[in-house]
């Protein structure tokens, strides 16, 4: 199996909290992340499929770049995720939820190849991998 990886970067802010929990419960669960804070994210989009024998390529990188720019980066870069992106209404803006949203957005517009993995790195020591719905 061949997997092609394309890396993107964006900056975004978010804050955690659950309105159905008390202030003390929120503080116990989310700590300082109850405050608005930002990250410099690294997004890796991994695509698999058959290599086109005429081009030697698995996917048109220009198309992949356009899809990610139009459907992910244009929405999330310099945003406050839980406020600016409607999909996150009532959801935590965690990397665990973000990769699901990103998968849905990218897979709906990809013309060749198929998504293999979405990796979203939030800090140098924290990242989430998503291999698609079950």
Secondary structure: elements and pairs:
Blueprint (H helix, E strand, L loop, with lengths): L2 E12 L8 H8 L6 E12 L12 H16 L2 E2 H4 L10 H13 L6 E10 L2 E5 L4
Parallel strand pairs: 1-3
Antiparallel strand pairs: 1-2, 2-4, 4-5
Secondary structure: helix percent: 25-40%
CATH architecture: 2-Layer Sandwich
Structural class: alpha+beta
Sequence stretches where pLDDT stays below 50 over 5 or more residues: none
Give the number of domains.
1
Q: Characterize the largest beta sheet: strand count, sense, and whether it forms a barrel.
A: 5 strands, mixed
Name the shape in a single word.
Answer: elongated
Mean pLDDT: 96
Give the helix tally.
4
In N-to-C order, the SSE pattern is EHEHEHHEE
Radius of gyration: 17 Å
What is the CATH class?
Alpha Beta
> What name does the CATH topology carry?
Tetrahydropterin Synthase, Chain A
Instruction: State the separation between the terminal residues, measured CA to CA.
Output: 20 Å
Strand order of the largest sheet: 3-1-2-4-5
Classified in CATH, the superfamily is 6-pyruvoyl tetrahydropterin synthase/QueD
Q: How large is the share of residues in beta strands?
A: 25-35%
Number of strands: 5
């Amino acid at each position: 199996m061949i997997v092609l990886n394309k890396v993107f970067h964006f900056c975004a802010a978010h804050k955690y909290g659950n309105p159905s929990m008390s202030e003390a419960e929120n503080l116990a669960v989310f700590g300082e992340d109850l405050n608005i804070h930002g990250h410099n994210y690294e997004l890796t989009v991994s695509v698999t499929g058959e290599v086109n024998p005429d081009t030697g390529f698995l996917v048109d990188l220009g198309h992949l770049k356009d899809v990610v720019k139009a459907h992910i980066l244009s929405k999330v870069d310099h945003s406050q995720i839980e406020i600016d992106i409607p999909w996150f209404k009532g959801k935590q803006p965690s990397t665990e939820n973000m990769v699901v949203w990103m998968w849905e957005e990218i897979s709906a517009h990809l013309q060749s190849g198929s998504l293999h993995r979405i990796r979203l790195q939030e800090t140098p020591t924290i990242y989430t991998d998503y291999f698609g719905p079950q």
